[in-house]
Amino acid sequence: MASTLFRTIQIHPFLLYPTAICRRRNGVLYCTMKSTQTQTATQEKQQPPKVKVSQHTQSKTPDKITRDYEAIIGIETHVQLSTLTKAFCSCPYNYGSQPNTSICPICMGLPGALPVLNSKVIEFAVKLGLALNCKLSLNSKFDRKQYFYPDLPKGYQISQFDIPIATGGYIDLDLPLEFGGGHRKFGITRVHMEEDAGKLLHSGNGDYSQVDLNRAGVPLLEIVSEPDMRTGIEAAEYAAELQRVVRYLGVSNGNMQEGSLRCDVNVSIRPVGQSEFGTKVEIKNLNSFSSINRAIDFEISRQALLHSQGHDDQIVQETRLWEEGAQKTVTMRKKEGLADYRYFPEPDLPEVILTQEYVDGIRNSLPELPEMKRRRYEKMGLSMQDVLFLANDVNVAEYFDATISRGADIKLAANWIMGDIAAYMKNEKLSINEIKLMPEELVELIASIKGGTISGKIGKEILFELLAKGGTVKGLIEEKDLVQIVDPVEIGKMVDKVLSENPKQLEQYRGGKTKLQGFFAGQVMKISKGKANPVLLNKILLEKLNAKS
Amino acid sequence: MGSRTLLMLTNFKFKSSFASSSSKPFYLVKSSPTIRKLSTKTRSSLQPPDVCRLAETARISLAPNEVEEFAPKIRQVIDWFGQLQAVDLDSVEPAFRADTEGDNLREDVPETFENKEALIASVPSYKEPYIKVPKVLNKE
Questions:
Q1: What is the pTM of this model?
Q2: pLDDT tens column, A215-263
Q3: In chain B, what are the helix, strand and coil shares in percent, each to the nearest 5?
Q4: Among the partner residues A83, A211, A349, nearest to B133 by beta-carbon distance
Q5: Least crowded by CB within 10 Å, which of A50, A180, A373, B43?
Q6: CB half-sphere exposure, A157, CA atoms < 13 A
Q7: CATH of the structural domain B46-87, one choice from 1.20.58, 1.10.390, 3.40.50, 1.10.20
Q8: Is-contact A91 A83, C-beta < 8 A?
Q9: Which long-range contacts (CB under 8 A, 24 or more apart) does A503-511 make?
């Protein structure tokens, strides 16, 4: 498994995207990454300035050093599938259940129990393989990966070794704008099916540990990337895109915090221009996209420093843990040679056979994937910032699509969703599926403002009520008498009233204080209950102010 | 000869595992990460078993005299299977598996196992709600 990353010596496969694009100066080590659906691009820029300064003073030398080296990064991702039952038995799986309550002889590995494959696992594997543009193996098999560990009841893990269900794919993504943007394409070596182990907890006092087998036997898909990433941000965005894809497909909830998306990263460096790979280091314990980013950048610096000082022999093949608190990687125990898993074909499970019809059926049922959505939104004329936001969460994208399919103005719809609606969702901690404003009503709102029925300001006000309580735009306009006043005669009357009620200010205005126009406008707005059309109001106001003398 | 050597294998002291119940031999050739090339031309004789390593990886404790005793016996079993090396496979497509039946799949419908209490009761060391195990820090 470890050697598949270096099977092919790839020399600068993506020279089109030089690493200089990634500006290391903008506090990359401490950036917060977009890991939840509702963060907008503007929120990303709020980095603690204190940290930026300290990074500047230290960074000159390490920065220069790392530029002499090229980092080769590969990622192994485990995706926990959201099937109702486990891979090889009918036990249900629910995150957070009481320990050892979802067990049976099969997932406990008791004598005589035999595994029976869950058909959904194959379906999800094919879905993901197709979404990652892989070649599917119409015939594949399971193998036993044998090792002893307390959380592995059978003493082996049922996995796929030499004939995985999918191979040779790629994934497209766009880097976030705050990191320079840009399109990337990373290779996927393979995708295979396997089962999860139980959970091992180490007790406080050192002499024993505890095992919970609820998770034992839960289906996983392991995705191995080609070593195509070159920076921490590329790796983090790769993981984020995988999360997007599995959520779009509905095969997993892809949650790093819950453990349904786990990433192990392999990092090595080599002097720029060298064709041989350097020593590869594995990093574990990465619990968020930002950790992936920071851990890799740290590790690159660590290795580059050692190399530049002539101590590259101190870079050994090992597994290191990322310590979130200390913000650094530390050695786990050094490996005493490669593990021997003694793989052999799983005798208790038959071959996995896919027919072309089955595969085609699934291919035809695939939803529009994030990459396709982004390209479609780009073609519609939306800015990259809008595109990345709208396509990030499949539910938001669907909402947006529902709105524009009913004829709403594209840019306006995007602005409402990314602005006021997103802010509301964040404050109330709701997802877009939980807000009471229906896409149809958003369409109506946009049309009402565009058509002049209500003013933009009033629109924003009723939006809040629509989000919280629902209802229709037309209904609210009627109920609250919000129709904009556009009759010049009526506005004229209100202006006259305001001017006559405020003679002192009128005199000051005529005396030269032209700024008071705003004051008068505000007063007219007040008596019109905000309904006066602002443009018309100011036109008439100006006429009347400058007329009499 | 075959059945007698199989009987001797049952004298081993080890806890039951699926591998033993199906009485198939463990593959003693070191698994290589490259695609299997099972051709008769590359190996005409099989490697002698490294019994110590074998016992270590299978977590079976053997006294030195047992190692000496079992090495030739294991060798005999391997050589007996080694007769297969004589078969000419030049015109035969490698098969993934020995069987010819296709998938045996199950619908994704949850079913709770009725007698979970019995399962828990059979755990030798249980400290509610966890299974108590010795502290092991490193895999393998």
A1: 0.78
A2: 999 999 999 999 999 999 999 999 999 999 999 999 999 999 999 999 9
A3: 35, 5, 60
A4: A211
A5: A50
A6: 23
A7: 1.10.20
A8: no
A9: A506/A545, A509/A545, A510/A545, A510/A549
Would the CB atoms of A350 and B102 count as touching at under 8 Å? yes
Place of tokens 């990454």: A33
Q: Do A351 and B21 touch (CB under 8 A)?
A: no
Q: A103 and A153: one domain?
A: yes
Candidates A44, A33, A45, A40; CA nearest to A418 is A40
Structure tokens at A73: 């990064």
Q: Across the interface, do A84 and B109 touch by the CB < 8 Å criterion?
A: yes
Q: How far apart are CA A403 and CA A397, in angstroms?
A: 10
Is there a domain that residue A377 lies in? no
Joined together, the tokens standing for residue A286 give 């990465």
A475 and A508, same domain (yes or no): no
Contact A59, A27 (CB under 8 A): no
> What average pLDDT does the segment A451-462 reach?
84
Question: How close does chain A come to B69, measured CA to CA in Å?
Answer: 24
Q: How far apart are CA A324 and CA A287, in angstroms?
A: 9
Say yes or no: ipTM exceeds 0.85.
no
pLDDT of residue A405: 94
- Integer CA distances (angstroms), A356 to A165, A513, A546, in order: 14, 80, 80
Question: Which residues are within 8 A (CB) of A515 and not within 5 positions of it... i.e. 6 or more apart?
Answer: none
